[in-house]
User: What shape does this take?
Amino acid sequence: MRPGGSLTSEARNTIVRRLLEQDARAYKAVLLEALIVHPKCFPRHYREEMSRPLEDIERQLAGEIILGAWIKDELVGIVAFAAKSFPKQLHAGTISHLYVKERFRRKGVAGLLLGAVLESAAHHVEQVEIIVSDITEDVVALFERFGFRICGLMPRGIRIDSEDVDTWIMVRVLR
Assistant: This one.
């Protein structure tokens, strides 16, 4: 459930679960949509993702925590979590590419995804970090509703061709 509001009928009918290898094609399609529709919000470039073999994505889904929001048989949103691997950072992890398809936004789906990924992350780390484009005030507000706080601004955090976009670094302590 998302803090501070009731769920819409779409959100009540949403199933959030870990994506499996057999979901690779649907996951790739949603991720590509995110990278094409909102290039300033993600550090990945759609060209790289477009050329990535499905087998690589299947391996990624088998080994990482990537959740999907399903309404009926349609994958409508995604989010990923990865624990950090350096010994001095094992207490922390990163959330990446939270994305919900346009027609399912503002219905509680992003909140369901974020809540589920935070619940999963809490089993692995004590702190979660995310980098958010400074042009996405509504996304920053969503993370703040879930207890994230801005801890810094990274000037020119994302560069698309010759355009720079600043990014906020946000953190939530889980325990």
Notes: The chain has one domain: 9-173.
